[in-house]
UniProtKB/TrEMBL annotation:
<dbReference type="Pfam" id="PF02878">
    <property type="entry name" value="PGM_PMM_I"/>
</dbReference>
<keyword id="KW-0119">Carbohydrate metabolism</keyword>
<dbReference type="InterPro" id="IPR005845">
    <property type="entry name" value="A-D-PHexomutase_a/b/a-II"/>
</dbReference>
<comment type="function">
    <text>Catalyzes the reversible isomerization of alpha-D-glucose 1-phosphate to alpha-D-glucose 6-phosphate. The mechanism proceeds via the intermediate compound alpha-D-glucose 1,6-bisphosphate. This enzyme participates in both the breakdown and synthesis of glucose.</text>
</comment>
<feature type="domain" description="Alpha-D-phosphohexomutase alpha/beta/alpha">
    <location>
        <begin position="318"/>
        <end position="418"/>
    </location>
</feature>
<dbReference type="GO" id="GO:0006006">
    <property type="term" value="P:glucose metabolic process"/>
</dbReference>
<feature type="domain" description="Alpha-D-phosphohexomutase alpha/beta/alpha">
    <location>
        <begin position="200"/>
        <end position="309"/>
    </location>
</feature>
<keyword id="KW-0460">Magnesium</keyword>
<comment type="subunit">
    <text>Monomer.</text>
</comment>
<keyword id="KW-0413">Isomerase</keyword>
<dbReference type="GO" id="GO:0000287">
    <property type="term" value="F:magnesium ion binding"/>
</dbReference>
<dbReference type="GO" id="GO:0004614">
    <property type="term" value="F:phosphoglucomutase activity"/>
</dbReference>
<keyword id="KW-0597">Phosphoprotein</keyword>
<feature type="domain" description="Alpha-D-phosphohexomutase alpha/beta/alpha">
    <location>
        <begin position="17"/>
        <end position="164"/>
    </location>
</feature>
<dbReference type="InterPro" id="IPR005846">
    <property type="entry name" value="A-D-PHexomutase_a/b/a-III"/>
</dbReference>
<protein>
    <recommendedName>
        <fullName>phosphoglucomutase (alpha-D-glucose-1,6-bisphosphate-dependent)</fullName>
        <ecNumber>5.4.2.2</ecNumber>
    </recommendedName>
</protein>
<dbReference type="InterPro" id="IPR036900">
    <property type="entry name" value="A-D-PHexomutase_C_sf"/>
</dbReference>
Amino acid sequence: MVMFKVTRVETTPFEGQKPGTSGLRKKVKVFIQPHYLQNFVQATFNALGADRVKGATLVVSGDGRYYSKDAIQIITKMAAANGVRRVWIGQNGLLSTPAVSAVVRERVGADGSKATGAFILTASHNPGGPHEDFGIKYNMENGGPAPEGITNTIYENTTTIKEYMIAEGLPDVDISTTGVSSFDGPEGKFNVDVFDSTSDYLKLMKSIFDFPSMQKVLSSPKFSFCYDALHGVAGVHAKRIFVEELGANESSLVNCVPKEDFGGGHPDPNLTYAKELVARMGLSKTHSEPNPPEFGAAADGDGDRNMVLGKRFFVTPSDSVAIIAANSVQAIPYFSGGLKGVARSMPTSAALDVVAKHLNLKFFEVPTGWKFFGNLMDAGMCSICGEESFGTGSDHIREKDGIWAVLAWLSILAYKNKDNLGGGNLVTVEDIVRQHWATYGRHYYTRYDYENVDAGGAKELMAHLVKLQSSIDQVNKIIKGIRSDVSNVVHADEFEYKDPVDGSVSKHQGIRYLFEDGSRLVFRLSGTGSEGATIRLYIEQYEKDSSKIGRDSQEALAPLVEVALKLSKMQEYTGRSAPTVEE
Ligand code: G6P
Ligand code: ZN
């Protein structure tokens, strides 16, 4: 048996180690400085306290980006030195963020142990590689991100840290082969368990979805499928689930081999960055595809985001969550007993609200950020939730879940086609969306991003919009001067949220203008940008009249876009005549 000792290494604080709820994200060149990662990890152990660390079972894995392998060895040695009892590592260090959440909640070790927390090594949809980003975040025993109380303490600890502990004499673990290695340290046994990355997650998915019915769809000659993991970790799970379990053709997987630099791409599943999928699905402006697949989807680097596409058809994330919620009870066994409630983030379109109303479901509108859903789920108040930023999920875990969203769509396709896979026409993704609009009305929706604008200008623009809100009459006068064909603003405010579970209040969560006909304009500053400020403008128009739901989205939204840009004086404050990204 290999014996290790505990060494205390002297260190000094680094500036700027403040984690958000999505963890600490920095350039790789920052992370590889001697002691940088170590300081953060020790600060986390100290913030958790001895009772959450001594004897603990920790998951350590991530999206496989550059520096992950080194980081896993460092964290394992530090865990051993801090009295952790077991470290669990997905094979090759690969686990999607939702898979980590599932492993924490569901996996039982050979000795009956359960995980107490996790270090997730990812910077989500940010590019990877020696010149790009690395990240680390800590998740708690419920499988969700550490709450602010803990992340604040981690940060305070990083500002005063003087030493960290690391095991000496503990060899690097071979993370490419599954199996348990056992070591002896001053506080007793220490085990490293390298396990199959997908088994536990797959088991959870099988307890939620009807796999045989999805298999029927995937094997039907009428159906075709394409999944693009953008070289992120979702590729590992996709191969096992879609190909090996559900029988999809191997050629339906694109970019499903994880790469440390995501093949040089930007692993964010949207119409701009998921280029290959967009082309295959017949949605590229420059390339024409003669016969696109019936269904396509993409994931981000760590597999928690998703984009869903039909043949030559884009499903907005806001519609996606509404459609999943509307069909869940019939199509997904996990929800057959009914939904506890549904929730969306404030800037996400109100498509979900209409479903909630029709189905008489509890409904919550929360600020941007997945953590707000977690509280509702822990309290048993929410089953399905989603965000316009390509996040969809449910209370099966405490992270958004990209592959879950695809399985939800496959389940809906299976349900809608249960009688016509033999004869009759396939009910397509586009059919399902159009039927949904015909039943519930359509929320035309677009988002304009102004990236890396001057922070001062962005602040002034927001202040200008807040000031305008004091007189709705004045606002309506200005608007009528811009376009006479938009309806009246009936309410305007800065969104504020009181968490119904813990009573905490979140202020200044974005500026809303609500129109009489259900249209909305929302302005907010991004919380995830790394340079300057990013202004996001969300534009939404509700159309109940079924003869008007088939319009081109850009065209339908043109009057509101004009109003938004002129009312906010966008060009004046930002110097920009066009957005950086338009979705
Ligand atoms: C992260 C969070 C999401 C959130 C998004 C918003 O991805 O996990 O829950 O919707 O950031 O980003 P933004 O840049 O709009 O603040
Ligand atoms: Zn992500």
